[in-house]
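Hi there,

I know you've been waiting on this one. I reran it after we fixed the sequence typo, so this is the corrected version. Both the input and the resulting structure follow.
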Amino acid sequence: MLAEAPARGRVRLRTFINLRWLAVAGQSATLFLIYFGLGYHLPLVRCIVAILASAVLNLVLTVVYPASKRLSSREATVYLGYDVLQLAALLYLTGGIENPFTLMFLAPVVIGAATLELANVMVLAAIAFVSVSVIALVHEPLPWAPNTPLDLPPLYQAGLWISMVIGIGFTSIYAWRIASEGARMSAGLAATQLALAREHRLAALGALATAAAHELGTPLGTIAVVARELERTLPGGSSEASDAQLLREQAERCRTILARLAHPEESVVGATDRLPLGALLDDIATPYRSEAVAVTIEKPAEDAEPQPKVWRAPELVHGLGNIIANAAEFAGARVRVRMAWNPQQIRISVEDDGPGFPPEILEKLGEPYITSRPGYAAGGTPERQEGMGLGFFIAKTLIERTGGTLAATNLDGSGAQVTAVWPRGTIDSENPPESAANL
């Protein structure tokens, strides 16, 4: 399938104003050269009025609008349409289609074809076609030497009209196609560069994770050993012994996570390759349930379609795990994981009852090193664990690798919601995705 053509238009007004000043200068120079230099008779006053109209319009636009204003496609069409009509008025006063400067009709049309949508280009071409046709039939005499009359044969004038019509049509379509192809290539190149940059950041994160796993393995092992010794020496059933046991369990969990990061190809994400969606979500959410935060899985009504069976791809497990972990960290007391599906898509929403995303970072979520963790409170006490702002970036990238999209918003009242959506057949197809097939 061909990619959709990128949006056109949005050209700076200053660019069009400068082009019009160039046209005003050229028209003025030509007019005075013919009248004073060659001595040819022409309606000088009316020609000067037509040129002054463009100059006055330029001055008004310069004063009213800032230099950075960008024109919409409709505004640019009106702007260039005026240039066509102004040129038609000058040519009407100076010989009509017999005037060799009729070729200048191509300039506004080609400029529009290079910057506007096809419909706007067709409007400009139609204005130019009508203008050429009118001045071919009705016009003032061509300025010429008084004693040397110029009488062009009607057949020759018809040829001029046909050549102008064909030229306007051909150059407008050709310029539009070339400009569209260039814009499409530029958009594709920009998208490719963005994808490569994201892959480069992920590769750097992978190398960082491997180095962290290697460097942190020894101190975490030491912590586990010391915690185990404390368990043995502390009185059984005491709060201190429970704390030591929790410390050992968390240290061992950290070592397991780091081992998966260091060797993702050897990680075991489950004994079953394919699971019902609810079972998979329940398994992913289990490590993040605690006495302080309840993580619940909400399913549709019983009369809904059968649950889709999804592949247990590492990207899916780690991506959703990151989202649920972030929600559990910021939640007050509850995290709800809602799932829904229909013949077109599968949707998973993770909601918490926390403070929600700060407005200043909501639009930037998904970029690396964007975090809402406030860091340390007064006195040096950490309010929340200070992060690098990579959790949502990693989750978004992993979800997109599975063919889904990720979006975040704040709920009415309090809390945040992160929603992942997949088209049917991406994570629930009969054939496993590449990552799940390697398990």
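Quick highlight: Confidence is low (pLDDT under 50) at residues 1-6, 266-272, 375-388.

Best,
R. S.
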